[in-house]
Structures are given as structure tokens and as C-alpha cells.
Design a protein that fits this description.
Length: 414
């Protein structure tokens, strides 16, 4: 084990040491570690990617934690660039404002505020906003565009300072950040200090139920330390002096969980949704190793089917490319064994990825226009959650005789 990766011995939510490895995805490079041409000869580090289930609280998690300084070295994700996310956040802000009757000039704080897309929506409702994010360049950009922010990590000390300077928060939001933080208890300590007596903490996390149900195994990579379900979170928040009062399902990232939390003994009642979600999770045995063993068999089945088709096409002399190189592509390609002898090159719309090579396998990433220059016979849609949009946008490729292959949730050729 390298010094940049530490193995935890205890559950991130309940501190139990009774943990069972339930899904072994082997060693892979970091999902976002795309390589420049000049670095191709250098050996690329890989890290264990194994999911463990806590036998006490049933929380699913990675225990091998890569140093965030290494993990987020070249972080480039900016949420506001995608119109889908902007619409999602507009709906999100409207929901919170309407349901919780926030006071005029109330304070909304967001942990992991990125480019300020969500806070901008709250600001339009007349609320004061403050973003906290360690990504300096993105946060400075948000501040310049009128979204107040602090560059740094959300700590209990920072929570105390914010309360002293701006008063208690009416809303604290954290979207797609809770799965990235190793010391979650410390963050919740800060939340408890900053929330006003009627305040709420709202979070969105990718939901393990969707991962298992729809074989979204490519969302498992080193940045995502936790694979949340409702049951373990109830006890976790209670131990932090907080109370989970409502949960709902939202569509983002292939299926996410939105939770609403108040201070223990706060004014809101616990909605029936909490018990209903836990019941659904038990029915799917998400608190048992069996659910993960089923997922492993499903990955195996898809790999056999997809590789069989691709190898047959290769033997017929067909040329195969990939479409899209988001972070999750690395897990997908490693576990479906989409290696350079099968995939010649990958096209991606993002200029940030073009000219680079994929982590570990070193398949070149080129502009999408190359589809029409190199004219591969088949294109595997690696960013498969955008498959309908990609197929529609590139109708010309199909009209010229090309085919798309969608690998998940079931192998499909169009
Ligand atoms: Zn636990």
C-alpha cells in the first residue's frame, strides 16, 4: 500500500470494526487520472477498489482512502456547464423555499458549492447565500459572478465563524459531496453548530438501491467512499445530534437520494417516507452481502455478452471506438475489459479531455468530430446514461452506416 492510500479499519458511519468485503473490483487507477502523451512511459499507480459492508449498521463503503490531495489534483468538474443540472437545481431551490417557508433574507450555506449554480437559484428567491468549496479557481469564479464564497473545507471551526459573522443558517445544503468525505462526523459537527433552531440540512447522494437495481457499478470509483442507503443514515444522524426527517428519490446521476435533516428535537415530524425507504432497502437485501454478490454476477454477465459481441466484430475486421470519457468510464472499461485491442480510440466533447489518454489503459481521447473522419463501424457509448441524446445528436453517423452499442443496463446495438 502506498503512502497516498490509507486503509480504514472502522465503519465511516458507526465506527464498528465488523466489516465484510462484499464486492472486489480489483486494483484500478484513479478515475480522473487521464494521462498526457509525454507521461505515457511512466507507470501509473493503481489502488484497491473494494466495497465493504458494515455488519453493525449495514453501511456500504470503500475502506481504502486515497489522499484527497492526489485524488483532486486536477479536478475540472464544473456543474453549471450542464443544462440538466441547472434545471435540477432550480427545482431543488423551489422545493426547499416552498416547503419550509424560509424567512425573508434567510441564510443558505452550501458545502461543496462548485460554481455556485444551486446558490444562484436560492439567491433569486431573495435569500442570502454563502458557498464553501476547497476548489480555489472555481470558487473565485463564483465569487466574481456575485455568489459569496469561502475557499476551504467545511470544519466545525469554520461553522462557528460563519454563525458569528452572519448568524445561524436556515438551510445548509450538500450535494454529491457526502460520499467524498472520509470524516463525515466532523462535517456533521459543523452542521449542528451552524444550523438555526428551525434550520434544515439537505443533502443529495447517489443511492445504492439504484446502483444495484440498474447495475450502475461504474459509479463505484475511489472518489466515492460511500454508497448510501437510508437505514444506516438514521442512526448516524442521531449519533450526531441530528434527525433525518424526510427522504425522496431524485433522478440525478442515474438515481439519487435526497434527505432532509433537522436538529434533534426540531419542529418537524419524521415523515413516513423514512420507514418506507428502509422497508424497500430490506426487501432488496441491501443490508446483506447477497445484494452485492448479485451485482457482481450481473457485471460478469454483461462483460461476457459485450466482450463476446465486440470480439466477434473485431474478427470480422470492424473498427470499434468509444463515446464519452467521464470519470466513471475507468471503472466501466476495467471491469468490462474494454482494452486497447478492442477499442481503438474514444471521442469526447470536452476540450479538457481531448488529446489525453485514458487512465491505465492509455486509449487516446480525440474530438467528437473524429467520428466523421475516422468513421469507425461501431461506437460503444461509454457515457451510457446519455445514450439517447448521443444517438439522436449523431443521427448522421448512423445514416452513414455506423452503429452505436449501449453497454448498460443491458447490451443493445442501434
Ligand atoms: Zn457501521
Amino acid at each position: 500500500m502506498s503512502s497516498t492510500c490509507q486503509r480504514r479499519a472502522t465503519c465511516r458511519l458507526c465506527s464498528s470494526a465488523d466489516l465484510e468485503k462484499v464486492l472486489a473490483l480489483g486494483h484500478t487507477p484513479l478515475a480522473n487520472a487521464f494521462v498526457r502523451r509525454e507521461s505515457l512511459p511512466e507507470a501509473q499507480p493503481t489502488y484497491p477498489l473494494d466495497v465493504y459492508l458494515c455488519r453493525d449498521c449495514a453501511h456500504a463503503q470503500l475502506l481504502d482512502v486515497v489522499d484527497p490531495a492526489v485524488l483532486y489534483k486536477d479536478y475540472v468538474y464544473v456543474s453549471g456547464t450542464s443544462p440538466v443540472f441547472v434545471r435540477h437545481f432550480e427545482e431543488y431551490a423551489r422545493y426547499i423555499v416552498n416547503r419550509f417557508a424560509l424567512p425573508a433574507n434567510g441564510l443558505v450555506v452550501e458545502i461543496g458549492s462548485n460554481d455556485g449554480t444551486l446558490l444562484r437559484c436560492f439567491k433569486e428567491h431573495g435569500l442570502r447565500v454563502l458557498g464553501i468549496d476547497p476548489a480555489e479557481q472555481i470558487t473565485r469564479g463564483a465569487i466574481a459572478s456575485g455568489i459569496d464564497g469561502i475557499v476551504g473545507f467545511f470544519t466545525p471551526e469554520l461553522a462557528h465563524e460563519i454563525r458569528r459573522d452572519r448568524g445561524p443558517a436556515d438551510v445548509i445544503a450538500a450535494n454529491n459531496v457526502m460520499a467524498h468525505i472520509d470524516d463525515l462526523s466532523q462535517v456533521m459537527d459543523g452542521v449542528r453548530r451552524l444550523l438555526g433552531p428551525d434550520g434544515i440540512f439537505v443533502f443529495e447522494v447517489s443511492y445504492l438501491k439504484d446502483v444495484v437495481e440498474n447495475t450502475l457499478f461504474d459509479t463505484i470509483y475511489h472518489e466515492h467512499l460511500d454508497y448510501h442507503t437510508v437505514q444506516p443514515l438514521v442512526g448516524f444522524f442521531r449519533r450526531c445530534g441530528l434527525e433525518l426527517i424526510d427522504v425522496m428519490h431524485v433522478d440525478s446521476h442515474g438515481g439519487s437520494l435526497r434527505g432532509v435533516v433537522q436538529l434533534a428535537g426540531g419542529p418537524h415530524r419524521v415523515e413516513p417516507s423514512v420507514a418506507a425507504f428502509i422497508e424497500g432497502e430490506r426487501r432488496m437485501q441491501l443490508d446483506q452481502p447477497a445484494a452485492f454478490h448479485r451485482l457482481a454476477r450481473e457485471i460478469e454477465r454483461i462483460r461476457t455478452e459485450l466482450l463476446g459481441q465486440l470480439r466477434r466484430l473485431k474478427q470480422e475486421g470492424k473498427r470499434i471506438a468509444g463515446f464519452g470519457a467521464p470519470a466513471k468510464t475507468t471503472t466501466l472499461m476495467y471491469h468490462l475489459e474494454l482494452e486497447p485491442d478492442v477499442i481503438d480510440f474514444i471521442v469526447d466533447d470536452s476540450p479538457l479531455k481531448q488529446g489525453l489518454y485514458t487512465p491505465g489503459m492509455h486509449i487516446p481521447v480525440v474530438p467528437t468530430s473524429e467520428l466523421y473522419v475516422r468513421r469507425p463501424d461501431y461506437v460503444v457509448i461509454l457515457a451510457w446514461n446519455f445514450a439517447p441524446t448521443i444517438v439522436q445528436k449523431h443521427a448522421a453517423f448512423r445514416e452513414a452506416g455506423g452503429h452505436f452499442i449501449i453497454p448498460l443496463p443491458k447490451v443493445e446495438i442501434v
